[in-house]
Design goal:
Blueprint lengths: L1 H4 L5 H5 L11 H4 L6 H8 L5 E6 L1 H14 L2 E6 L11 E6 L8 E6 L5 E2 L3 H5 L10 H18 L7 H16 L1 H5 L3 H11 L1
Parallel strand pairs: 1-2, 2-5
Antiparallel strand pairs: 3-4
Helix pairs in contact: 7-8
Amino acid sequence: QQMEQWSFPHAEELLQRAIRVGSVHYGYLDGRLGANWYADAQRIAPDPEVIVGIGMGSVMDWAKILGRKFGAEVVLLPSALSTNAMWTANVAIRDEEEQGAQFAVYGYRVGAARRVLIDLDFVQLNTRGNSAGAGDLLSIWVALQDWNLAVAHDREKSHPSIYAKTQDLLQELEDYATDINENTLEGLRISAELGN
């Protein structure tokens, strides 16, 4: 929908062979939720060489999942930089939980994208999608605090050079907080660089 809404180049051509995906849930791989996106993809291209994901975090994860299932290369063109989904080899997949909870989330390593293409002008159009700013990047601060606790309790080794690089990254994120919040091209550039 974003591609049509923002007059993305070649949107009509690309959307002829598209699957519109939503949340990352096993029920969409086996049909339990009324759709089977893997089967849909097989009907479009039974043996694709490349899977292209254009969109936000869930689209990035689905492209990686389908790339793994097909054994195809994955190319991602994110429309927001508020997650790190395009940079990781992992995905989080929801499924029902037996204890009656709405769902449980499981993490899987499915493989990283072969290429990630960042078009800052395209990304900037998605002000709502970028409103989380560098949310996944800020999770680094929490991880750093967890690491400090683990080192203090002799459960983890200290790595001063990694710690220093991480502190520098967080400082740069803070230095550009206004640009990131205001969705400027410079803020998006920094988000892309720091996220990678």
